[in-house]
Amino acid sequence: QPELNSPTYRRAEAERAYRGTDKSPAKSPARVTGGAVRVVVGTLILAPALLQSSEVLDVWVEVDVPGLSDAQLQTAARRKNDPPLDFGFSQTLQANKMLPALRNALRSADELDADVYFILKGRAAPTGGGRVLGQGVINLRTLLHHKADWDERPLAIHAAAGGAPVPGPFDAGVVGELTVSLIAHAALRRAAQ
After folding, report:
1. Spatial CA neighbour of 18 closest among 104, 135, 137
2. pLDDT tens digits along 5-48
3. 84-110 pLDDT, tens per residue?
4. DSSP secondary structure letter of residue 74
5. Whole-prediction pTM value?
6. CA–CA distance, 58 with 60 (Å, rounded to integer)
7. Helix (H) or strand (E) holding 101
8. Are 174 and 42 in contact (CB under 8 A)?
9. Strands in the chain per DSSP E
10. Rounded to a whole number, what is the distance in angstroms from the first to the last CA of the chain?
């Protein structure tokens, strides 16, 4: 098996994630105008071991988009045991601000520069500091190649480095499944011109 952060593994993972196992009827993507980029963070299903852990009380998601500062896309913290665990987060990023960063990400020699990370964080107390529990990745080049958006699809959240595989209904090393949208294809087409 290739190393987790190797380009070969990441390409295969991006293709596998893009193809997914969602058998629901195709939806029309959430409308965005002028090639803007929309990021939506919806429901989270946690692995049983993480649900039962006393080391995590609250969870939230930070989204790392190329060209944006880390603090710009962050959901509110939610109690992990308060069903449904739906973040209800949506942010539209204006095309004129995004195009230079998207262009750089698509043209970079390093494929990782085109990754959008959905980082799951958690904390043990409502006022405590957080730690990374895991992350899921959507590659912008993959979206452009497939001429599609990632629209309300599940994204596997892999355990943070050093995290032990979590038993349950997920793949080994997966701590949860997050439903997200990344509506970016129109903006990616403009950036690729």
Report:
1. 137
2. 444 544 555 555 555 433 333 344 445 556 789 999 999 999 98
3. 899 999 999 887 788 889 999 999 999
4. B
5. 0.80
6. 7
7. helix 95-107
8. no
9. 37-46, 58-64, 78-79, 86-93, 115-123, 131-139, 150-159, 174-183
10. 36
